[in-house]
Amino acid sequence: MKVRWGALTLTAVLALAACGAETEAPTAAAGGGGGGSLVWAVETQPITFNPQLWGQNKARLLVHNQFDSLVARGKDGEFLPWLAKSWEVSKDGLTYTLHLRDDVTFHDGEKFDAASVKANFDQFLAPGYNPAVAAVQLRNFGRAEVAGPHTLKITLKAPDGLFLDFLSSPYAGQISPKSLRNAKDLKAGGVDVVGTGPFVLDRFTPGQEVHYKRNPDYGWPPAGSAHQGPAHLAEVTYRFLPEAAVRVGALTSGQVQVIEGVPATEIALIKGDPRLKLETSLNSGSAFSYYFNQSHPPFDDKRVREAFRDAVDVDAVLNSVYQGTAERAWSIIGQGSPQLYDASLENTFGNDPQRAARLLDEAGWDKRDAEGYRVKDGRRLTVRAVNSAPFVRDRRDILAQAIQAAVKQSAGIDFQVKLVDQGTAQKAYDDNQYDVFENSRGDTDAGAALNLILPKGAAINRTHFADAGLDRLLTEASASSDAAERKELYAKVQKLVADEALLLPLYVPADQIAYSASVTGLTFEPVSGTPNSAYDIRTGT
Amino acid sequence: MSTLTLTRRRGLAAAGWLGPVARRLGSGVAVLWAAATAAYVALLLAPGDTVDVLIGDGLDTPERRAQIIAEWGLDRSALQQYGDYLIRLLQGDLGHSYILQRGVGDVLSSQIGPTVRLALAAAVFGVALALVLALVTAGRRSWTNGLAGLSELVAVSVPPFLIGILLLAVFSFSLGWFPVSGDRGSAALVLPAAALGLQIAGVLGQVLREGLERALEEPFAVTARSRGITEWRLVTRHALRHALLPAVTLTGWFTGVLLGGAIVVEAVFGRPGLGQVTVSAVTGKDMPVVMAIVLLSALVYVTVSTVVDLAYLAIDPRLRRSR
């Protein structure tokens, strides 16, 4: 009797374990007559699939499968037609007239026209929808008016050189007016928040995968696409595999055909495998840098800031941590933003321990304590970094340890790094209890990043640097839409920041993808440097 | 025996149950209340202003601050907020996830299924493996015993993360027997359940074998042997019952292993489930979700320990009378 009970329980448990498992048609790896399917393992599951609430650089590669923006970017950062065929900007820079395509339909059958674009703009003004975008990217937005069935007039309150960048960003991804009104969960996005893109999101299993099927009616790719008409792939699945080693294993065993986020330690293995290919692209925006808080000692003394910058052999440190896979940065703007990057700063500072020692001697830090750290008035030369653990990626904790060793050895600086939770980090920032602040931002227009970091009182101006001249340069550069003028203004900004030794630029964040050699058409978005949508991808031959 | 006496006896037996059950349920509710309160106080004491925490690295403007304060009712006193929170809990309202922009109840209910399946499969796997190992090796002073002990030690000391990667490397990447990720049928459940179940098998196996060996040296074993019973029958029919008691006591511990381990295992195998929700809620300081998960774990513990205690009562009538 008892034995039977045990057996019954066991069967019940097994049945329970099996009953929830979904049955699913196997996804063929190689392309067949239907155009093939592809499985792509990605590191991060997006918080939202709504492009207008998008905020994670790592989720960018998904957005343009489902949604098209109004404007595209070309290889040199130029603006190209997409859902807007052309546009005119009035002389005073206040009125943008968009001429929209008239052959576009949303996945739910709604017509794409001037009224639907206006509905999308108006949505941003809805309270609580996306207050961050409403207050930053759209701070100069006045109103949108329907000037014809496919003509939209946008009036700005002040000229804004970043407005076209906004029109080319995921934020300008067009959502069907019907889903704006009726979606079950507009903020989370998903199956019932639809766009006009080359793929239709038809299945999302949180924590597991998101599945897209081809939009057979698609015929409006951005200018600069490798082909026209519907996508090559019949379906594409993005699987969420947060563990890097697991992603690589899934690729080498053929369970997925593409992976994103290749760890430096696996790069040699992938390069050595003839069945696989690897590609890297630098991200746009600001470089990953250590910003010096110059509002109190020791970094209120420019000599100490310069000494810290000179004390590190950045190339050697990057080599040991990233095994030659990281691109060294020289400026607050990374080389991933060639439109604004000032290359003349290269090799103008750094790796000069003698100069570091001289500067520190001059600044009064000329004695040493028993442990070899420099001392002044009985106080050790200590600089603190407080980092919020959830934001530490790319082995930046290891990088910090390497720099810690370098500045101790070559300059006697006691660099202390604390990894804490977000609340504790925020408190340290609020109380000004830190000396080093590490950050990089992936904005497509690096100017947007600088507007958050550099002006007096800006949201993440954690150096507390304030300079009226610098603020003027930034305001001018933000208002201008003349490429040459902006480049010149931002060159001045970068020079000023370097001369002030406000930061130690370390490396330019990059995206890596590795894929099976049978996959073609994988590209990176030219400006952001993040992987493109699956529109041009083919599998097989 | 008259019908009356029988009824009275049944009534007495029921009364014997009633007290302990009521006490158990009462203390279960008290534990849940304590957990809810502790989670709330932890949130209050956590460094940093709640508004700062909710803003994170995002845009920090007076308007946004005002909006967050209004949305969360942060301008009221801590006691008022605590009262509201308890009332909402009693109404079954777990609040709204700040990061996922969805109801917490909705988030949890959509993710609980895969985790329950994983935990049950791991428990079945772990218990079955432990039973087999213990029954086969107990009482035999041979190399199998030593080998079993060694593998149990390894299973206990290697973290499930590493076990998971190793299992994947061998059975998925090299041999291609099982898929790497997802909640797609029983094949995909095998490796994660094994990664999670091995730890349970390790500890449980050791406890069971020691219990069996102790039982086999008891006088009743000698008596049974003298009656000519086979060794296998002695182990399975008699000694196992004695060995099971300490093993049952471990149920609470292994509920913890299952809950904690599921977080890691789900991440390694790319499975849906509560694990990922927990990790992103903790790293993102998504407090409503964190608190709901604290409550859920407390509820699971309370339920498990209540059931275990009641099972003891069922097994051993003396416990009923002594209370």
UniProtKB/TrEMBL annotation, chain A:
Family, as annotated: Belongs to the bacterial solute-binding protein 5 family.
This protein's UniProt keywords: Signal, Transport
InterPro entries in UniProt: Peptide/Ni-bd, SBP_5, SBP_5_dom
PANTHER family the record matches: PERIPLASMIC BINDING COMPONENT OF ABC TRANSPORTER, PERIPLASMIC OLIGOPEPTIDE-BINDING PROTEIN-RELATED
Residues of the Solute-binding protein family domain: 79-442
Native source organism of the sequence: Streptosporangium brasiliense
Signal peptide: 1-17
Stated name of the protein: Peptide/nickel transport system substrate-binding protein
Record's subcellular location: Cell envelope
TrEMBL record, chain B:
ABC transmembrane type-1 domain ranges (all copies): 112-312
The organism of origin for this protein: Streptosporangium brasiliense
Protein name (database record): Peptide/nickel transport system permease protein
Annotated Pfam families: BPD_transp_1
PROSITE patterns, sorted: ABC_TM1 (PS50928)
Keyword Nucleotide-binding in record: no
Primary localization: membrane
Bilayer-crossing regions: 25-46, 118-138, 150-175, 187-208, 243-269, 289-315
Cellular compartment(s): Cell membrane
Stored InterPro entries: MetI-like, MetI-like_sf
Top-rank taxon: Bacteria
Keyword line: Cell membrane, Membrane, Transmembrane, Transmembrane helix, Transport
Family recorded in the similarity comment: Belongs to the binding-protein-dependent transport system permease family.
Membrane topology qualifier: Multi-pass membrane protein
